Structure formats: structure tokens, C-alpha cells
């Protein structure tokens, strides 16, 4: 509520677009002028299924709003997403649903939508906010130590500081604070500049299913996953787009899921089995922040299955090498 009782416009903002989630509305629900279509919202562990209208799904107050110095509200980012969401919706409804592949310009818009969908969520914001918070706290500790130090100690601390080049941009504590406070606003464009050229060199496929439940999606709809990461040491398992095994997936609807990969075998529209759908749903649920949605209130136990560590996992290989004396 704004001053003098006025309601703030555009304060309820979707960090996962409402237009994106609409295809997950339950097709078996009654339809009519007095009924509201709904999806089924679940906790990450599959508990507490409840009906939720897309308009009330995955929102946060002013997540994209910038408060201006004069007390106003800058809604440029919120409004800027609208055109992108409209283009994506048209591509999904007029091209993908008819199994028609995209022209180059259309594909460019799709990739922008995917990159943006990955960088506009609460999960993305909270992760980067935590990263910058730790850096800001460390910088403040060093600043306080410098202020308490004697002149001799300051000289010694200055000599110990890493040399910086005039060509290398430096960051102030205020810069770090800005990144901590508004990570989506500050990191969206750099993220797009880094990600889009790599996406453009990758292969694209749309995985299709006739399974009654089909694909689920979540509050973090874009998933980066390296299926071979378990073979690496834990510190090297973070997924990166330059990894040749990386798979980027975005469910488009309960019937289709976009796959971006370096594998040249994946192109066009590909019909997949129920087992593959189950595995992708398991992946998307594991990587969601808090909630996932489905077009049905049915749960597949395979989505939450706990797997044994594979024999070729780094941990198992290490154990065998230690036991045989090969590990040093």
C-alpha cells in the first residue's frame, strides 16, 4: 500500500512468468465463466499439494522494482520482461505446439527468454546476494582493521595488498553493497552477455511426450545439469556451459521440454519415453528452490527416488584406490 492509501501498481511481480505457467493448468478441472483455472503446487518433497491460479503463483512484492532517490518506483525491468514473455508465448503456442522449428530470429528470442528465466528468480537472487554479502562483510572487516591500525601497520597492510593495474577495474565497498542489494538488476545484463554467445553455439531439441502428467516445472524453471559430474571431485561439480556434457533444460509445457546441449545428436523434435520424462522431472524437482508445479495432483514416486552412488563415482573410485594403496 502506498502513501495516502493508494495501491501501488505493479507491485505484485512474477519471478516466473504467469504466461509461462498457464499450460500447467489442470485439464480435467471444470471450465466455465465462474471457474478459475489452476495448477497443482507441491512442496519440493512432493508434500502439501494445493490448487493455485497462475496469477497467484511465484510472485514477490517489488522483486524487480528500484526505489528512486525521490521516492518513486522504477519499473523498467518489470515492464521490459513483458515483451519477452509475449514473444515466448507466441513461439510456444504457434510454433512448438505445431512441431514447427524456429527461424533464426525466433530462436534468438527463445534463447534470450531462457537466459533471462534463469537469472530473474528468487533462487538466483538469493544465491548471488549471499555471495556478495560475504565479500562485503570481509571488505568491511579489512576496512575496520585498516582504520584501527597504526601508520606503520597501514603501510605494512598496503604493501601486502595485491598490485592492481590501471587497466583492471576495481570495486568499492559501495559497489559490492549495490550488487548485494540488487543482484538481479546488476547481474542480468552481464549474465546475458556471457551466456547467449555460448547458447548460440549449442544444439537445440524439443523433447515431446504423450504421458498424461508429462513434464513438471518449478520456481527455478531453467536447470543446468552435468550428468557426468558425479565422476569429478566435488569442488569441480558446479555446472558450466563450456562443459561438453552440460544439459540445459526448460519445460515448455506438460507435453514438451526444451533441451540445449553440445551433443550434435539432439536436434529438432524428439519423442521420448515415460522413463526419460520421469528422470527429467526428478532432475527439475531436485533443482527447484521450494516448489514445483504439475498439471495433475498425481505423484510419481520415481521423482523422489534416492539413488545409490554409482561405482564409477569419484568417491567410490577413491575408496578403491585407497584400499589398494594406489591413492597417494
Keywords:
13 strands; disordered N terminus; alpha+beta; five-stranded mixed β-sheet; 328 residues; four-stranded antiparallel β-sheet
Topology:
Elements: E1 12-14, H1 18-21, E2 39-43, E3 50-52, E4 59-61, E5 66-67, E6 73-74, H2 76-94, H3 104-119, H4 122-148, H5 151-160, H6 173-181, H7 183-199, E7 203-208, E8 217-218, E9 223-225, E10 247-253, E11 256-261, E12 268-271, H8 274-286, E13 291-294, H9 314-324
Parallel strand pairs: 7-12
Antiparallel strand pairs: 1-4, 2-3, 2-13, 5-6, 7-11, 8-13, 9-10, 10-11
Helix pairs in contact: 2-3, 3-7, 4-6, 6-7
What report would you give on this structure?
By secondary structure, the chain is α+β, with helices and mostly antiparallel strands. It has one domain (13-158, 173-324). It is built from nine helices and 13 strands. It has a five-stranded mixed sheet, with no helix packed on it. It has a four-stranded antiparallel sheet with strand order 3-2-13-8, covered by helices on one side. It is globular, with a radius of gyration of 24 Å. Mean pLDDT is 90; it is low at 1-5.
